[in-house]
Design brief:
The protein is an alpha/beta fold. The chain is 37% helix and 14% strand. The longest helix is centred in the first third of the chain and has 17 residues. The model has no long low-confidence stretch (mean pLDDT 85).
Length: 247
């Protein structure tokens, strides 16, 4: 397996020489680790510096490490940690929209590389498995690909020893969460996910493109813990502040 990884890395280096990477935002030459992003645009991204220790929501100025938002002071979510390093605002919203709805897979590679860099620099141990948030088969056929799976592939290529597991299934079609109000969101995803078979790990991360209210990831974490997983992390490239009192 390590030989295959080295061969793929050598192939990527050869392709980079033939087709030099360029920044997806400004067109300047790209630089590691994201490659298709230049150093200036990377620095200007809206990095999330004060996340809630429970759900990752951006906290106001003056917050310190391990502070909790109002929602998490009342009830912590089922997942144990959140990794969502960017605010969902320009130009991150543009990048995610292009990746998710317009097949801009190069943009997905940039987002995955940034997420992998932050994950690998944390003091916490990496999860054993990555579980992409699954699409319902009808939506997957319509879109043609699952953006969460593409992100997970990029992450596993950058994080040695971490694998993808595809045993998480969406067993019920759901409405888009953004079109629902606060009271409707938890019920919309309740019972929508199931685990297929026995999970071969006790520490996993669920991967999605953007975390909005967190209801979907919370429901998945509940299902995974009922299946015997000890630690569930929620990974997304960006975090959107939820409406007050919602998750």
């Amino acid at each position: 397996m390590e030989g295959v990884r080295r061969w793929l890395q050598a192939l990527e280096r050869g392709l980079d020489r033939l087709y030099p990477p360029c920044c997806v935002l400004c067109g300047a030459p790209g630089e590691p680790p994201a490659l298709d992003l230049c150093a200036g645009c990377r620095q200007d991204l809206p990095w999330l510096s004060r996340p809630c220790a429970g759900c990752g929501v951006p906290l106001p100025a003056g917050a310190v490490a391990n502070d909790l938002c109002g929602d998490c002071l009342q009830a912590r979510p089922c997942f144990d940690r959140v990794l969502a390093p960017l605010h969902y605002r320009f130009p991150v919203d543009r990048l995610i929209t292009g990746f998710k709805f317009h097949r801009q897979l190069a943009t997905g590679r940039v987002l995955g590389a940034l997420l992998a860099e932050v994950a690998d620099s944390r003091p916490e141990p990496l999860p054993e498995l990555l579980l992409p948030v699954p699409l319902h088969p009808q939506r997957l056929r319509a879109r043609g690909y699952n953006q969460a799976t593409e992100l997970a592939r990029q992450l596993t290529s950058a994080l040695p020893g971490v694998r993808i597991w595809h045993g998480l299934r969406r067993v019920r079609a759901t409405s888009t969460q953004s079109g629902l109000d606060r009271a409707q969101r938890p019920g919309n995803v309740l019972g929508a996910f199931a685990v297929n078979g026995t999970l071969p790990a006790r520490h996993v991360a669920v991967v999605d493109d953007v975390m909005t209210t967190g209801c979907t990831l919370d429901e998945i974490a509940r299902v995974l813990k009922a299946a015997g997983v000890e630690t569930v992390e929620a990974w997304a490239t960006a975090r959107t502040p939820p409406p007050p009192g919602s998750r």
